[in-house]
Amino acid sequence: MSEKWTEQDTPDQRGRVAIVTGANTGLGFATAQALAGRGATVVLAVRNVAKGKQAAARIAGDVAVQELDLTSLESIRAAAADLRAAHPRIDLLINNAGVMYTPKQTTRDGFEMQFGTNHLGHFALTGLLLDRLLPVPGSRVVTVSSVGHRIRAAIHFDDLQWEHSYGRVAAYGQSKLANLMFTYELQRRLTAHGTTVAVAAHPGVSNTELARNSPAFLRLPLTWLAPLITQNPAMGALPTLRAATDPAVQGGQYYGPGGVGEVRGHPRLVSSSPQSHDVAVQQRLWTVSEQLTGVEFPIGAQPRQPAARP
């Protein structure tokens, strides 16, 4: 592998099944396209089936579309049932879909939109599909976080759903911090099984539709600075792609752009914030997430020990 890891470094994926959430556009589409280009069977798990089919038509290879609305536990359960029926084995589950800086609103189940979609939706989907990955050598769960996990971020157990106050930036930070904590706790629980691993990635600052809900005070600066501080979706997807396919990747690692401030550049191993490694908070978040979603994982808790750090 070269120092500057690129899409061309992706190993042969023939015979592997990959599910990518939010794959009809942006980072998810670029990830799905790259995996299909290497021979994987790729499922675009998307909220809008029509847009998913349009995206699938633009990808050469074995591609299918699965309806999945991460704002609805009912939809997540239905999608998981469909995916389980269609795929006795799953090699890659890429938890990519997300929302960012949304106005205050809730999911169909009453969860704050960013926490409910970015964390709880993927938590539930992973738990419902995990037994399809566990027997598969080399299988991985890759969850996409963000540099936003460092910005005004904390897990607000006293007000997880932001019912008493709401800050869209802080709520996004909570959801992306939760993505990392979920990855680290999942990896701890997977360790005893010796097959599936959990890995996290972030795209730096990528030029996608995700930032369309940015606060007004950020929109103009982002518009002017975009050419200097953002990268295209194909580059932004590389950390996820590397986390999913590089044979050297280990469970509990975190990949992001290698440039200054992890804003852009080729993917490399990066570090997450100190609070993301708080084992007690990780385990508490796991327990609360099981209670909120009603989904229990087919793996037990392991002894408390720090998650792998780069």
Give a verbal description of the structure.
The protein has 310 residues and is of the alpha/beta class. Helix content is 39%, strand content 12%. The chain has a single domain, classed as Rossmann fold (3-Layer(aba) Sandwich). The chain is built from 9 helices and 8 strands. Helix 2 links the parallel strand 2 and strand 3. Helix 3 (73-86) runs parallel beside helix 4, helix 4 runs parallel beside helix 5 and helix 4 (113-133) crosses helix 9. The radius of gyration is 18 Å and the shape is globular. It starts with 16 loop residues before the first strand and ends in a 17-residue tail after the last helix.
Strand content: 5-15%
Low-confidence stretches: 305-310
CATH superfamily, please?
NAD(P)-binding Rossmann-like Domain
Can you tell me the CATH architecture?
A: 3-Layer(aba) Sandwich
Question: What portion of residues is helical?
Answer: 25-40%
Multimerization state: single chain
Distance between the termini: 19 Å
CATH topology, by name, is Rossmann fold
Described by strand count, sense and barrel closure, the largest sheet is:
8 strands, mixed
Shape: globular
Strand arrangement in the largest pleated sheet: 3-2-1-4-5-6-7-8
Query: Using DSSP, what is the number of strands?
Result: 8
Mean pLDDT: 91
- Overall SS class: alpha/beta
User: How many structural domains does the protein architecture include?
Assistant: 1
Family: Belongs to the short-chain dehydrogenases/reductases (SDR) family.
GO molecular function: oxidoreductase activity
Pfam families: adh_short
Protein name: Short-chain dehydrogenase
